[in-house]
Amino acid sequence: MASTQRVAMGEGVTWTVVGEDFRVAEPVEQYLEYLRSRDCLPNTLKSYARGLALWWTFLERRAQSWDAIGVTELGTFVGQLRRGSVAEDVAPLHDGTKAADATVASRARAVMGFYRYHAARGVEVAGRLYETVKARPGSYLPFLEHVARRTGRRSSVVKIRVRAKPVPVLLPDQMSAIREAEATWDAAGAVWSGELRYRLLWTLLEETGLRLGEALGLRHRDWKTGTGTTAQVEVVHREDHPHGLRAKSGHRRVFVGSALDRLYGDWVWALCEAGADVELDDWDDAYIFCNLHRGRRFAPLRAESVYKHLAARKQQVPVLPPDMTPHWYRHTHATALLLSGVPMHVVSRRLGHADIQTTINTYAHVTEDAELRACADWQRITQAWGSRHES
Question: Which part of the chain is the Core-binding (CB) domain (predicted)?
Answer without folding.
Answer: 22-119
